[in-house]
């Protein structure tokens, strides 16, 4: 039996990979694979009642994979028809920038979705992990989550200032530097876009109005549950 989702993904991949090098395809596939495996691990932890047992360091590494930003940044190259030079992509500065973008976005999402996930008893959230590990109040955990998010963003911005130096170190020509610039822009767009989306999306709506409130008042659960009814 052939799974329709597999067939659909094969069609998406045909278009997504068209015109991209084997190097890019391999990188994207690896990023996508880590993302899928992380979600399988998350489901397994929840099924065994172990979702709320991860320590802070373990959770931060796990969240970096479940947020799915690495392959999303890769897709930004496909959308504009360019590829970041392999030597730049493998440089510690670029690698760390990508990780920090994933951390920043994952932590931001946790802060925005905390109240909803708290009601659902979902332990896959930075604030819940901080409260459990440090034995502090919800407010203290929230404040620390905010501090951690800002720290990630500050470190990212510091590294972004070092990109020209990285290009000099790698002796990139002007065309290669331009592709690095567009790669950095892709990261910037994801950080900013996620922030703007979180502020306006019904998924994280703080004020319970409209369809979100109607669904919950009708006993249909959270917005996530509407996908299954």
Low-confidence stretches: 207-229
Any guess at the CATH architecture? Orthogonal Bundle
Q: What best-fitting shape do the alpha-carbon axes yield? A: globular
Number of strands: 0
Specify the CATH class.
Mainly Alpha
Number of domains: 1
The CA-CA distance between the termini, in Å, is 26 Å
CATH superfamily, by name, is Farnesyl Diphosphate Synthase
Classify the helix fraction into a percent range. over 70%
Strand content of the residues, in percent?
under 5%
Could you give the topology of this structure?
Layout: H1 4-16, H2 22-47, H3 56-66, H4 69-80, H5 86-89, H6 92-120, H7 126-134, H8 138-160, H9 163-170, H10 174-200, H11 210-217
Helix pairs in contact: 2-4, 3-6, 4-10, 6-8, 6-10, 7-8
Describe the structure.
With 229 residues, this protein is mostly helical. The chain has one domain: Farnesyl Diphosphate Synthase, CATH 1.10.600. Helix content is 74%, strand content 0%. The protein has 11 helices and no strands. Helix 7 (126-134) crosses helix 8 (138-160). The protein is globular and about 55 Å long. The two termini are 26 Å apart. Mean pLDDT is 86; it is low at 207-229.
